[in-house]
Amino acid sequence: MRTAAATIEVRRPSAVRALTLLLGVTAAATVVVELLNWWYAPGQEFGLAVRTGWAMLRSLGFLVLIGHVNRGRAVAKPLGLILAVTTVFAVGRLVVPRAGVPPLPGLLGFGLLTGLCVAVVGLLYRSDVVGGHLVRHRKGLVISGGRLSWREVAPKRPAVTGWLLTARAAAFTYSPLVLVPALVAGGSILDGRLSSVPAVLFWFAAGIAVSYLVLFCTAFLLRGRSWARKLLVAITLGTLAVDLPLCWWLLGLDGLVRDGAPLLAAAALALYSLHRTHPTPTG
Q1: C-alpha separations of 55 from 17, 34, 83, 257 in Å
Q2: What's the confidence (pLDDT) of residue 251?
Q3: Greatest Cα pair distance in the chain
Q4: Residues 20, 15: Cα–Cα separation, whole Å
Q5: What distance in Å separates the CA atoms of residue 121 and residue 127, rounded to the nearest whole number?
Q6: What does the pLDDT look like over 143-156, one tens digit per residue?
Q7: Residue 205: per-residue pLDDT
Q8: Is there a contact between 133 and 121 (Cβ–Cβ < 8 Å)?
Q9: Which of 55, 136, 173, 209 would give a disulfide with 90, using CB separation of 3.0 to 4.6 Å?
Q10: Cα–Cα distance list, 196 to 38, 130, 188, 193, 243 (Å)
Q11: What does the pLDDT look like over 8-26, one tens digit per residue?
Q12: CA 167, chain centre distance (Å)
């Protein structure tokens, strides 16, 4: 009796199991499509290797997302949305070559991966069953009645909306989206462009600084501080003001499109998510 009851309790709904399977297929498809793009690329240059490696790392992001879905964590929704959006941009910038027509296998793979990402977002945001499953908080050590236990811990901060979590997840992508083109530009140093060393070093420093600024800002953003919203807007605009001109100067129009567009999409998603939320008055 006890075993049967426990089995019924932990059994996940069919929609959640379908989402888990879909995420696994998407992670595998990300790797396959990137390998296809690399195989059919006319030249395996340093910049393509960096962008391909970063895009393939997103498969690990989908595996992390599977863990959040299995545990019913509410953060799975914004994480899945930003992963889907940035994956489409990351793969799309590699499908189009510098010259000529994109290869047919690359286009087919990009279309398949786009469809998978749309299906993931649709299940996360349009399925009531999945929405009812993703409501749990993180677990932690709790002392109750003189006994130490590992269980779900409700956060002490005010209730956080899904849009606020989405803004936070989008902001966390700023740093890697800045560091990837900075690393690509670092390849120009190997080609003898020593005059670009100060700009590349500044680019790296800016990417690292953005990660700390976003970490500090979003910690207070989730606690309803109105000044944190303004700070996140300033960080977003400042990141664009630094990254886009450097992409244009060191990587040209091709780099501006390939590396600037994903950052612009993440920034637009973060700003739109902030617009959809309302600041919580705090004492």
Answers
A1: 25, 7, 11, 16
A2: 85
A3: 74
A4: 9
A5: 10
A6: 666 666 556 566 55
A7: 95
A8: no
A9: 55
A10: 27, 49, 8, 6, 15
A11: 445 678 889 999 999 999 9
A12: 11
Q: pLDDT tens-digit profile of 45-91?
A: 777 777 777 777 778 889 899 998 988 888 888 889 888 888 888 77
Only one residue has tokens 């932990």, namely 10
- Cα 166 from Cα 22, distance rounded (Å): 21
Q: What does the alpha-carbon distance between residue 10 and residue 256 come to, in Å, rounded to a whole number?
A: 48
Residues in Cβ contact with 133 at an 8 Å cutoff, skipping those fewer than 6 apart: 12, 13, 15, 16, 69, 72
Q: In one letter, which amino acid is 269?
A: L
Q: Which residue has the higher pLDDT, 43 or 198?
A: 198
Query: What are 248's two structure tokens?
Result: 């244009």
CA separation for the pair 131, 121 (Å, rounded): 12
Angstrom CA distances, 47 to 98, 128, 181, 184, 186, stand at: 12, 42, 8, 5, 9
Taken in order 57, 58, 63, 65, is the CA torsion positive or negative?
Answer: positive
The residue whose two tokens read 């929609």 is 15
Tokens read off for 81: 């949305």
Residue with tokens 């510098």: 98
The 10 Å Cβ neighbour count of residue 130 is 22
The upper half-sphere exposure of residue 86, i.e. CA atoms within 13 Å in the direction of its Cβ, equals 33
| Contact (Cβ atoms closer than 8 angstroms) between residue 207 and residue 178 | yes
| Res. 142: pLDDT tops 90 | no
Instruction: Give the bridge partners for 73, in sequence order.
Output: 136
DSSP code for 141: E
Residue listed under structure tokens 């976003």: 214
